[in-house]
Amino acid sequence: MERLQKIIARAGLASRREAETWIQQGRVTVNGAVVKQLGSQADADRDKIKVDGKLIPRPALSYILFHKPPGLLTSMRDPQGRPDLGHWLESLGRKGRLFPVGRLDFNSSGLLLLTNDGPLAQRLTHPRYGVRKLYRVKVSGHPSESELERLRKGIRLEDGWTAPAKVSVVERLHKKAWVEIEIHEGRYREVRRMFETLGYFVEKLVRVRMGPLRLGSLGPGEYRSLSPREITALRKIVGL
To answer: How many Cβ atoms sit within 10 Å of the Cβ of residue 34?
Structure first.
């Protein structure tokens, strides 16, 4: 949901201030009802919003697969002035509303979907649909098979038990290891906390897959549009 004047301005019909005047003049309707109250909100993807009886155009849907680098906040604006998605999008000259589907913490990297498709984003992040995400994690030390089995069965964190995970060691280095772990939850810093509970410090964390989407050879800071096939596959797994 967004304020009406913001939706009208984004459609290119007027500035926000002009849109506010139109609202006060009773020129704007939402689903057939006149709206005069400033601050009123609507859903640009679902509601029928008209100005002077004419339906305002809905923004074209965009789907961007972004390789988020470490050191970038998964938020549109950071009050502390740290690098964030909002500034990154502005640097590309992209206009219109795009928002991240889920989050990656500041020091993590990898696949991040950006879109303005609200219904799809909502379902992709809803626990009901259990969209699976695969991470490649570099940890200090070598997790034992019994420790991995704890992750497979579910481990207790301060905010409750985790759901069973798929996990395996893919490479052992000197005093370190690369581990792949697949989960379907989206709790705060969940993967890091799972390994920390076992006593392992996470040095790197990269999301390499989300549902049917794969990071592939996309480098940190690079991005691409989803193909029609990928969009169809995403919508299918959440019943759209």
So the answer is: 11
pLDDT score at 70: 96
For the chain, the average pLDDT equals 92
Among candidate residues 104, 101, 77, the one with its CA nearest the CA of residue 88: 77
Is the confidence at residue 96, as pLDDT, over 90?
Answer: no
Helix (H) or strand (E) holding 121: helix 118-125
The answer to whether residue 117 is catalytic is: no
CA 16/CA 9 separation, integer angstroms: 5
Can you state the angle between helices 118-125 and 228-237, rounded to 10 degrees?
A: 50
Distance CA(230)–CA(51), nearest Å, equals: 35
- Catalytic pick from 43, 45, 105, 159? 105
Interval 45-72: pLDDT, tens: 789 999 999 999 877 889 999 999 999 9
User: Which domains can be identified in the chain, with CATH numbers?
Assistant: 2-55 (3.10.290.10), 63-127+213-237 (3.30.70.580), 132-210 (3.30.70.1560)
